[in-house]
Amino acid sequence: GKTRALKELKFKYSLNGYITLFYLAGEKVSFYETLRSFINVQENYKDIDDKFQIYETLMQNLFEFAKDKKVVIMIDDVEKLSDYDLKLFRYIGYGLHKTNILLIGTSKIDGETGRGEIGGIETGRGEPERIKNLGFETLSLRPFTIAETEKLLTKTFFALAMTKENDHIAQVSEFAQWLH
Question: Residue 35 and residue 72: Cα distance in Å, rounded?
Answer without folding.
Answer: 12
